[in-house]
Amino acid sequence: MTHFVEPAPAEPSHVPNMLDELQAELNQRAAQGLLRHRRVLESAQGARVKVDGEHLISFCSNDYLGLASHPDLVSAMKSAADQVGVGTGASHLVTGHQLMHDRLEQQLASLMKLPAVLLFTTGYMANLGIITALVGRGDAVFADKLNHASLNDAAVLSRADLHRYPHNDLAALESLLAKSTAKRKLVIADSVFSMDGDIAPVPALLALCEQYDAYLMLDDAHGFGVLGENGRGVLEHFHLCSERVIYMATLGKAAGAAGAFVAGEQVLVDYLLQTSRPYIYTTASPAPVAAAALAGIKLIETDSQRRQHLHALIKLLRDECRLQRWQLMPSDTAIQPIIVGGNEEALAASGRLLEAGILVPAIRPPTVPKGTARLRISLSAAHTVADVRHLIAVLQKAESA
Fold first, then answer.
1. Smallest Cα–Cα separation from 191: which of 245, 128, 229, 141?
2. Taking the alpha carbons of 229, 219, 127, 379 in that order, is the dihedral positive or negative?
3. pLDDT tens, position by position, 308-338
4. Together in a domain, 365 and 345
5. Structural domain includes residue 16
6. Is the separation of the CB atoms in 363 and 374 below 8 Å?
7. Can you give the residue range of the structural domain that contains 170?
8. What is the pTM of this model?
9. For 47-85, how does the pLDDT look when each residue is reduced to its tens digit (9 = 90+)?
10. Is residue 336 one of the residues assigned to a domain?
């Protein structure tokens, strides 16, 4: 008679699941000095803020004209909320397009001196909506390597052939355009690069587009309201006007509110309204936000002293900030980056400024290229001359620590 012996149960082998893998990646980021943390803002946005219980001078907001808590914007938002409530309840193409949205589009078109404007809920959604609607398979996108992540993501999602050229390298871009046999060609670039603060060579980009039958899409998130005599952004800065330009800007930076818009030829806006999925398939932003943006646009048009003061602060920082080891990058805009180098050193530098009551973020890869971790200083018209001189003194002391 044969006896069968049950085998002993095998020791369970641990196969990492997705959550284990995610934790391992987070641990690796932490070890490389790349883990990000949120701070809690406990006050209104401005030059002086309360963050995580501390009162600080902030040099890390994109509120370039100091309008985010301006009484005119606050009053406009309150009044609109009293009239129409808060939620829009539907997309723009159903019943979400309210009177304030319509007025804002008209006012922006007037300010920009362009035929038509279409609002989007955010700049990220605007870039996704514009690029994926205009190009697809068989087309080609040509993108600066330092473009914002939203432009890169939009180009990939469009399924067009993506060609990235070295930062502001016009010869490389021309070579790519000359070789292209794509049906539609779209060059996309930030007008003011958000981590370097430099301005794209827009006239030369437009000339190449005209030569090679391409269109030029500009993301002017950091130029609108700041550049140009009247705050019309990079197009006014360079005195440009062309039907080949597709202009996008945001309303959450210099305008002090939230949202974004695309401006250009009427046929462009009409086409995007019919085909742009991020526009069609999302609930319209609250009308009180549009009302606040309208108030911000009015101040951009009428209060030029804010821009003048901001540019005076930019000049002051560049004239008086003398550093030995760290490098203040060339920039004529409100974005003034200082290259520190390593991730840990940039974090330590930011920490030393924080101890002195100054809030300046450390920007690390992948937001910026490896080895170029930096302090990203954002100046605002809400800052004073004394604020900037204090910042310079603290920076110089932190560098020598």
1. 245
2. negative
3. 999 999 999 999 999 999 999 999 999 999 9
4. yes
5. no
6. yes
7. 71-302
8. 0.92
9. 999 999 999 999 999 999 999 999 999 999 999 999 999
10. yes
Where is 376: in which H helix or E strand? strand 373-378
Q: Is residue 370 domain-shared with residue 231, that is, in the same domain?
A: no
Instruction: Give CA–CA dist 92/194, Å, rounded.
Output: 30
Q: Which of 163, 185, 237, 253 is catalytic?
A: 253
Whole-angstrom Cα distance, residue 248 to residue 124? 10
Give the integer Cα–Cα distance in Å for 316 and 358.
18
Residue 298 bears catalytic tag = no
Q: How many domains does the chain have?
A: 2
User: Of the listed 150, 158, 194, 285, which one is catalytic?
Assistant: 194
Is 70 catalytic? The answer is: no
Residues 6+ apart with CB under 8 A from 19: none
| Beta strands 245-250 and 260-264, pairing class | antiparallel
145 is known as an active-site residue: no
Enumerate residues 6+ apart whose C-beta is below 8 A from 109.
Answer: 115, 116, 117, 263
